[in-house]
Amino acid sequence: MLIAGEASGDLxxxxxxxxxxxxxxxxxxxxxxxxFGAGGPHMAAAGVKLEIDLTxxxxxxxxxxxxxxxxxxxxxxxxxxxxxxxxxEVIILVDFGGFNLRFARAIKRFVEARAGLFRNWRPKIIYYxxxxxxxxxxxxxxxxxxxxxxxxxxxxxxxxxxxxRVPHLSVEFxxxxxxxxxxxxERRERGSESQDLTGARGLAVSMWPxxxxxxxxxxxxxxxxxxxxxxPSEQTAVPAPYAESRRTILPLPRGEGRGEGxxxxxxxxxxxxxxxxxxxxxxxTRRLTGSPTHPLVLLLPGSRRxxxxxxxxxxxxxxxxxxxxxPVRLRMILPSAELAExxxxxxxxxxxxxxxxxxxxxxxxxxQVALAxxxxxxxxxxxxxxPTVVVYRTSRLTYEIGKRIVAVKYxxxxxxxxxxxxxxxxxxxxxxxxxxxxxxLNLLHHPDRVATIKSTLTKVIDSLGPPGxxxxxAEAVIELLESSESPGAPSR
Length: 492
Known about the structure:
The protein has helices spanning about 5-25, 40-45, 60-65, 70-85, 95-115, 140-145, 160-165, 180, 185-190, 230-235, 285-290, 305-325, 335-340, 360-365, 375-385, 395-405, 415-420, 435-445, 445-460, 470-485, and strands at about 1-5, 35-40, 50-55, 90-95, 125-130, 150-155, 170-175, 230, 245-250, 270, 295-300, 330-335, 355, 370-375, 390, 425. It is an alpha/beta fold.
């Protein structure tokens, strides 16, 4: 059984399912493993029998959680009853801490309360991608130790963090799956190759130093205990068009920040759903998107509708300001056609902006600068060594709660892994178009600063381990399963 509640977890789970199947075949299992649970389209495509598409219920911030509490309670009960009915030998919980940590505890209590001669269902509970307990509410680490048989970590500092607090919790750092997703020649051209694949599950990776108090990151739904501009210039000395694709003109938002309009010029968007069209010259697209010789600036406003609503006006107005200073190409990457349609709220004809569904890797491979909502995408920007200005804005309630329970120095993962400010960050009230545009232009105009950033990002990415994270995670799952003495274990 697998449970993944967000798009990123859905992809992680799907990759893990494929790796488990491959490992089972390699080990000569007589019967192939079967998978069921809750997740999204990637898991369904990987052959998981989905009871619920949880990715359709993703929430943004504390406010959304409170509004949908009763719905999530019903979904929780439904999945709990399914687990009890089908009695899987392994339950794999992927990220989604608020839901999955409670699910692990509920299963553990149920099993212990009914242990006996004729009630011998004792599933192995595996947590894949640690909840960010090191960022807030550290006490949850002890709950994990009580309920989980194995924690599979994808961040290099987590194993040591847990060992210092709950040494009896089994934790394995398997590396980050993002390394495998983007092992393209385009990415390799941006920096040095990753370490050679060692073949071992337990990785001995050279870690970029993490000063005390720096290497902690909240989930983007919980924000850092400060509101304001964090810019390297203040704190540190860190001196393609489309072809044969379906295009639609979408209106973009007026105004800056919270959407106040000031009679600005109109702006149109070229939307493409054909990722292979990137980089080809076709007809009038050069007129729409600018010369291929101009720097490419990417806009990455988020992967959820509420994130788009919060960040799209800021990033579009920042793009307008950048383009008023120097010629650039502008491209926005969104994960779905539905989110692209959501951009229709706005109404302008300038600046000219491509909006592309998917195609993130191709775009990062040619981008000079990115403007991004805080989240996993900042790590993808780091992987391609693209200097990025990070923004995050949420509801007032979520922010105020986050200030009181989260102790972090930075919000962007590359900054936390580096232990220093690499990507400029603008949080809540300071996440304005003016601040974002100023930092982006600074990056475009100072190649020495960009070179320093790229050098640091290479070390950050090296700390994530070599390729093969999903395979190592699958091997850990299967070894735990094969070591189980429960009746009905798969034949080896």
